[in-house]
C-alpha cells in the first residue's frame, strides 16, 4: 500500500509536466499575444511614448523570446529576467491585464469559488442521496416517476437559462437583485462577519442554479447503481439472515453503490474552480470562472496558464485521493489490485 | 415426532406483465424435526419460490395467495406460527428468519457481500438474534468456522469472500446460516455450482452438522443422486404442484407418477446398459434425412490412417503479474497444462474429465488455437495429410477453423443478445464467405432442422429461447461449417436435467449422422460415461488416466480417478456415497497421492500402459501387475 502511494505520487510529476506543456502550447496557439492587441490600439492613436513602453514591456515580459524559452521560464526551468522564478519556485507569473502578480489577482476569487462550489457539492449530495435511495427502493412508484420527471427537467435545463429565469422572477416578484456573490459595498474589502453574512445571503441562488443539473444527474446514477445492487444475491442472503430493511440497505447495496461517487472526486475538484463559469458571468459572481474566461480571451498567457495548471494539479490530486479512498473502502481493489494475468 | 414445518395448500402467485403465474399452486407437505426432506423438480417447477415463501423473502412481484406455512419451533415448546400470515419485514418474522430458519443458496460466488469479511457476515446473524457480548460473539463465530472445516478460523475470520475458493465460500455460507443453530435449514441447490469432489464434502458437512445441531433440512435440488444420498423423504414438484411425495424407499424403489419415472429415465447413470438411450421428458427429434443430399457431410474416408488429432507433450504456463515500479513483473507461475499427450480417433468421442482448474478447457482452447501453448505439438490429419496445427498461418489457419468448432458451456452468454437466431447460425457462413444469401438461408434451415428447432424461430432473439433451445442454437452454429471435430466444453452443465438428456441425445445422433468426432469436456462423470468412447482424466494440469470408458469406470487405477468416482452421488439407494473415500479433499493434491503415483520431484512419472490402451500416470518403475490389481 505504501509503495503504491509513493509510486502514484511520483507518477504525478511527469503527468503534470506534460500537462503544463500542452496547456502552454494551446494558450500560445492563436496568432499574436496580449501586447499585440494593445499595440494595434496605440498605433491608431499615434502615441509614440506608449509605443516605446510597449516595446519595453515586451522585452520585460519576455514575449520576444522563443516559445520554448517562454515555456521554460514560466515553469522555472530556465532563468528569465528575475532569475529562476516560475511555477516550480512558487511564482505563478505576472498578469498583463491586471498588472499584478497572478497570485494576488486570483487569491480572493479562488476563496469565493471554493466557498460557492463546496456549497454546491454539499447541496447536491444532501438532495440527491435521499431522493436517489427513495427512487431506487420504490421503483416505478408515483414518487419515483415524479422525481424522475423532475430530474430530467433539471438535467435538460441549461444552467444559465435557469439563472436568467430566477433573476427575472426574483426581480419582478420580490424586487430583489440577486446578482453577485455579495453586496457590492463589500467588494474589495477585507473579510468581516458582515461580509461573510452577505455572502451567505447571496449564495443560495447560485448554489441552486449550479446544483440542479448535478443533483439530477446524481439521482439518476444513484438510482441505477442501487437498482443493480438491490437485486444481487448477497442482499437476499443478508435479508434471509434477518437484517432489518434500513440497515440492510445501508450496509450492503449502499456501500457498493458508493464506488462510482468516490471515483468521481477526481472530477469534482477542478469543477469546483472552473465549472460554473457561464453561470458566474450571467449572475456576475466574483468567482474565478469568469476571470479564467477573460484571461483566455485576452491572451493574458501567464494568468490563464497558471490557472489551468492549478486546475490540473487539483485534478491529479483529486484522482489520487479517490484512488486511495477506493482502495480503503473496497477490499477487492486493495487486495487484488495489480494482480492480472 | 413433531413436524417443524407443515405447508398446507399453499398458493403463491406472481403478478407479471403477461398476467398471473401460479408458481406454487396448492402445495402441501411437511418437514419432520431432525429429518431431511428433498424437494425435487426442474427449473420453473416453483421449488425456489416455495423456499422464498418459507423464508418470507419473496420478490416484490410474488404474493402468498392462500394456504398456511406452519412453523413449530421445538425450542419454544411447540407453539405454532403461520409464516404466511406474518408481515415479511415485521419483527416476529425477522426473528424467525436467520435465527430459527436459515437458508443457503446455490451461488457461493455472489451470495456473500464482497465488501465485508467472512467473520463480519457470520457474526451479523448472531448480533441480530443472540444477546451476546462482542467477545462471546467472536468465540461463537470461530467455533462455527472450525465446525464447517476452516483449517485456521482466526485467519479465516478476516478474509474476504473473493479470497476463498468456491468450496470454502460455500462453507462460509453454511457457517453464516447455522451460527444461530436454527431448527430448520433450507438448502437451495447448495452444491450445484461446485465440483463433484467439493460437492461430496459439502454434503457430508451438511449431514454431519445436521446430526450435531439436531435440525431439520429442506433440501431443494434437481439432482436425484443427491436426493438418494441425503433425503429421508422426497417431494417431487412439477409446474407448482406436488406430483409425488413419500419416504425415500417408496419413491426410489417404486416411482408411481409418470413424471417422476420420466425424470429418473432422463438422468445418465453409471449402470446403464451399453447402447441404452436416455429418454428426455420432452423429446426434440433431430431431422437428419436431408443430409443424404451430401451437403455439409464430411467425408467418411478419414477413418483408416490413424488419429484425427494428436496432441503431444502440450504445456502451458500462466504467469500472474504484480505491478512493480516500472511496468509489471512476473509474480508467480501457474502450470495450467503440464505435458499432456492424447490422441483422438476419427469418429470417436473422447471425454475429458476433471474438476475446475485442472486445465481441461485450456487444453481445448489450445487445440482451437485460441491460446498459444508454451511447448508441445498438435497434429491434425486433414484428409490424410498431417498438419502441424501450431504452425498454421493466414489462409491455412482460416481453413483449419472450418474443421474444428467449439460448443460453449453457457448458452446464455455465448449467444449475442442483439443478433437473431438466423444471424447467429449464419455468421460462420458469412465469415467464411460460403454461398450467397439464398444458399445460406437454405443451409441455416437445414441446420435448424438438424438440431430439432422450428424454422419459424429464426427471426427471434436469444432471450426468447429456453436454455436447452439456446444450447441447440449454439450447436447449430458450430455445425454450420461442416466441421470434423467438435469441442464441447461442458455442453449440458448449465442445463436442467430434463433438457440435458435432450441435448445429449442430440449430440449422439449428430455424431452418428455426420460422422463427427467429439472432444467432450465435462466434470459430470455420468455425462461422459454416456457419450464418450474413451475418457481422459485430468488433475492439476496433468493427464492422470486414460482408458476406454467401460474399462475406466469398472477398474479405475489412479487414486484421483477413484476419488472422483467415489464423490459422484448415484441416484441409486443401494450405492450411497462413501464419505470416507473422499481423502478429505486431498484427492486433487498430487503430493498427497500414495506411492507410485505421488509427484514429489524425486522420480520421473510417465504414462504407463496397462494394456488395451489403458494408460495411467505413475512412476516409471512401478509394477504393472500391482497397478492392475
Short description:
By secondary structure, chain A is mostly helical. Chain A is built from 15 helices and 2 strands. The longest helix of chain B is centred in the first third of the chain and has 18 residues.
Secondary structure elements and their pairing?
The complex is a heterodimer of chains A (341) and B (629).
Chain A: H1 2-28, H2 34-45, H3 48-61, H4 67-75, E1 94-95, E2 100-101, H5 102-137, H6 142-156, H7 159-174, H8 193-230, H9 233-240, H10 245-263, H11 265-274, H12 277-282, H13 288-297, H14 301-329, H15 331-336
Antiparallel strand pairs in A: 1-2
Chain B: E1 3-16, E2 19-32, E3 36-40, H1 47-55, E4 62-72, E5 80-82, H2 91-96, E6 101-104, H3 118-129, H4 134-147, H5 153-156, H6 166-178, E7 184-188, H7 196-213, E8 216-221, H8 224-230, E9 233-238, E10 241-247, H9 248-253, H10 258-265, E11 309-323, E12 328-344, E13 349-353, H11 360-367, E14 375-382, E15 385-388, H12 394-403, E16 404-407, H13 421-431, H14 437-450, H15 467-479, E17 485-489, H16 497-514, E18 517-522, H17 525-531, E19 534-539, E20 542-548, H18 549-554, H19 559-567, E21 605-609, E22 615-619, H20 624-628
Q: Could you explain how this protein is built, in words?
A:
The complex is a heterodimer of chains A (341) and B (629). Chain A contains 15 helices and two strands. Chain A is mostly helical and 341 residues long. In chain A, helix 7 packs across helix 8. The two termini of chain A are 20 Å apart. Chain B is an alpha/beta fold and 629 residues long. Chain B has an eight-stranded mixed sheet, with helices on both faces. In chain B, helix 15 runs parallel beside helix 16. The radius of gyration of chain B is 26 Å and the shape is globular. At the A-B interface, helix 1, helix 9, helix 10 and helix 15 of A face helix 2, helix 3, helix 6 and strand 11 of B.
Amino acid at each position: 500500500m505504501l509503495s503504491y502511494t509513493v509510486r502514484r505520487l511520483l507518477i504525478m510529476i511527469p503527468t503534470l509536466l506534460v500537462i503544463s506543456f500542452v496547456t502552454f502550447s494551446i494558450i500560445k496557439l492563436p496568432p499574436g499575444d496580449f501586447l499585440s492587441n494593445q499595440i494595434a490600439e496605440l498605433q491608431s492613436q499615434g502615441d509614440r511614448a506608449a509605443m516605446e513602453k510597449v516595446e519595453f514591456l515586451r522585452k520585460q515580459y519576455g514575449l520576444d523570446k522563443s516559445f520554448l524559452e517562454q515555456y521554460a521560464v514560466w515553469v522555472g526551468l530556465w532563468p528569465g529576467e528575475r532569475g529562476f522564478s516560475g511555477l516550480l519556485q512558487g511564482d505563478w507569473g505576472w498578469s498583463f491585464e491586471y498588472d499584478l502578480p497572478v497570485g494576488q489577482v486570483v487569491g480572493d476569487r479562488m476563496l469565493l469559488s471554493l466557498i460557492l462550489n463546496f456549497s454546491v457539492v454539499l447541496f447536491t449530495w444532501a438532495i440527491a442521496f435521499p431522493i436517489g435511495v427513495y427512487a431506487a427502493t420504490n421503483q416505478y412508484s408515483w414518487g419515483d416517476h415524479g422525481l424522475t420527471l423532475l430530474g430530467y427537467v433539471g438535467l435538460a435545463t441549461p444552467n444559465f437559462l435557469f439563472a436568467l429565469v430566477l433573476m427575472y422572477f426574483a426581480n419582478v416578484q420580490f424586487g430583489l437583485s440577486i446578482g453577485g456573490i455579495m453586496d457590492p459595498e463589500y467588494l474589495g474589502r477585507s473579510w468581516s462577519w458582515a461580509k461573510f453574512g452577505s455572502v451567505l445571503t447571496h449564495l443560495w441562488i447560485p448554489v441552486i442554479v449550479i446544483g440542479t443539473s448535478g443533483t439530477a444527474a446524481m439521482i439518476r446514477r444513484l438510482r441505477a447503481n442501487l437498482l443493480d445492487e438491490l437485486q444481487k444475491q448477497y442482499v437476499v442472503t443478508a435479508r434471509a439472515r434477518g437484517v432489518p430493511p434500513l440497515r440492510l440497505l445501508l450496509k450492503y447495496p449502499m456501500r457498493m453503490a458508493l464506488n462510482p461517487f468516490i471515483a468521481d472526486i477526481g472530477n469534482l475538484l477542478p469543477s469546483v474552480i472552473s465549472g460554473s463559469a457561464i453561470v458566474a458571468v450571467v449572475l456576475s459572481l466574483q468567482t474565478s470562472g469568469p476571470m479564467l474566461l477573460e484571461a483566455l480571451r485576452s491572451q493574458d498567457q501567464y494568468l490563464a496558464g497558471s490557472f489551468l495548471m492549478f486546475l490540473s494539479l487539483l485534478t491529479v490530486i483529486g484522482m489520487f485521493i479517490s484512488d486511495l479512498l477506493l482502495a480503503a473502502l473496497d477490499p477487492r481493489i486493495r487486495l487484488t489490485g495489480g494482480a492480472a494475468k | 415426532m413433531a413436524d417443524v414445518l407443515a405447508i398446507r395448500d399453499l398458493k403463491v402467485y406472481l403478478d407479471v406483465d403477461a398476467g398471473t403465474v401460479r408458481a406454487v399452486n396448492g402445495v402441501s407437505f411437511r418437514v419432520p424435526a431432525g429429518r431431511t426432506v428433498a424437494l425435487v423438480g426442474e427449473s420453473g417447477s416453483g421449488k425456489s419460490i416455495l423456499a422464498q415463501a418459507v423464508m418470507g423473502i419473496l420478490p416484490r412481484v410474488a404474493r402468498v395467495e392462500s394456504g398456511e406455512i406452519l412453523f413449530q419451533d421445538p425450542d419454544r415448546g411447540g407453539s405454532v406460527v403461520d409464516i404466511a400470515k406474518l408481515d415479511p419485514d415485521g419483527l416476529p418474522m425477522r426473528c424467525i428468519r436467520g435465527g430459527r430458519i436459515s437458508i443457503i443458496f446455490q451461488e457461493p460466488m455472489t451470495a456473500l457481500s464482497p465488501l465485508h469479511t467472512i467473520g463480519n457476515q457470520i457474526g451479523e446473524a448472531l448480533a441480530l438474534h443472540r444477546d451476546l457480548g462482542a467477545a462471546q460473539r467472536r468465540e461463537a463465530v470461530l467455533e462455527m468456522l472450525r465446525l464447517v472445516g476452516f483449517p485456521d478460523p482466526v485467519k479465516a475470520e478476516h478474509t474476504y469472500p473473493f479470497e476463498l475458493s468456491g468450496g470454502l465460500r460455500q462453507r462460509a455460507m453454511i457457517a453464516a446460516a447455522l451460527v444461530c443453530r436454527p431448527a430448520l435449514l433450507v438448502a437451495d441447490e447448495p452444491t450445484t455450482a461446485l465440483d463433484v469432489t467439493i460437492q461430496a464434502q459439502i454434503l457430508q458437512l451438511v449431514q454431519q452438522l445436521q446430526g450435531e445441531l439436531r435440525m431439520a433440512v429442506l433440501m431443494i435440488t434437481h439432482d436425484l443422486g443427491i436426493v438418494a444420498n441425503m433425503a429421508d423423504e422426497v417431494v417431487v414438484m412439477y409446474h407448482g404442484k406436488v406430483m409425488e411425495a413419500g419416504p425415500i424407499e417408496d419413491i426410489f424403489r417404486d416411482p408411481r407418477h409418470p413424471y417422476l419415472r420420466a425424470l429418473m429415465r432422463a438422468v445418465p447413470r453409471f449402470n446403464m446398459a451399453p447402447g441404452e438411450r436416455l429418454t428426455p421428458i420432452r423429446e426434440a427429434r433431430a431431422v437428419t434425412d436431408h443430409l443424404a443430399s451430401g451437403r455439409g457431410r464430411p467425408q467418411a474416408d478419414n477413418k483408416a490412417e490413424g488419429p484425427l488429432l494428436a496432441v503431444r507433450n502440450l504445456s502451458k504456463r500462466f504467469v500472474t503479474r504484480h505491478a512493480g515500479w516500472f511496468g509489471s513483473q512476473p509474480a508467480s507461475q501457474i502450470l495450467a497444462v503440464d505435458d499432456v499427450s492424447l490422441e483422438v480417433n476419427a469418429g470417436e468421442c473422447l471425454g475429458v474429465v476433471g474438476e475446475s482448474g485442472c486445465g481441461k478447457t485450456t487444453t481445448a482452447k489450445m487445440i482451437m488455437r485460441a491460446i498459444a501453448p508454451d511447448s508441445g505439438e498438435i497434429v491434425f490429419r486433414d484428409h490424410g495429410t498431417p498438419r502441424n496445427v501450431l504452425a498454421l498461418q493466414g489462409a491455412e489457419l482460416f481453413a483449419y477453423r472450418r474443421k474444428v468448432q467449439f460448443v460453449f458451456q453457457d448458452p446464455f452468454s455465448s449467444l449475442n443478445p442483439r443478433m437473431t437466431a438466423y444471424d447467429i447460425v449464419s455468421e460462420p457462413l458469412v465469415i467464411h464467405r460460403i454461398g450467397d444469401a439464398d444458399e445460406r438461408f437454405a443451409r441455416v434451415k437445414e441446420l435448424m432442422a438438424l438440431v430439432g428447432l422450428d424454422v419459424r424461430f429464426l427471426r427471434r432473439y436469444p432471450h426468447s429461447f429456453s436454455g436447452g433451445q439456446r444450447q441447440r442454437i449454439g450447436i447449430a452454429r458450430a455445425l454450420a461449417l461442416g466441421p470434423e471435430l467438435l469441442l464441447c466444453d461442458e455442453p449440458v452443465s448449465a442445463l436442467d436435467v430434463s433438457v440435458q438428456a435432450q441435448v445429449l441425445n442430440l449430440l449422439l445422433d449428430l455424431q452418428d449422422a455426420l460422422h463427427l468426432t467429439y472432444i467432450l469436456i465435462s466434470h459430470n462423470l455420468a455425462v461422459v460415461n454416456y457419450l464418450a468412447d474413451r475418457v481422459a482424466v485430468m488433475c492439476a494440469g496433468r493427464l492422470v488416466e486414460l482408458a476406454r470408458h467401460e474399462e475406466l469406470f469398472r477398474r479405475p487405477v489412479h487414486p484421483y480417478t477413484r476419488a472422483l468416482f467415489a464423490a459422484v452421488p448415484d441416484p441409486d439407494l443401494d450405492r450411497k456415497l462413501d464419505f470416507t473415500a473422499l481423502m478429505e479433499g486431498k484427492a486433487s493434491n498430487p503430493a498427497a497421492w500414495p506411492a507410485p503415483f505421488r509427484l514429489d520431484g524425486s522420480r520421473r512419472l510417465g504414462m504407463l500402459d496397462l494394456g488395451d490402451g489403458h494408460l495411467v500416470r505413475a512412476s516409471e518403475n512401478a509394477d504393472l501387475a500391482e497397478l492392475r490389481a
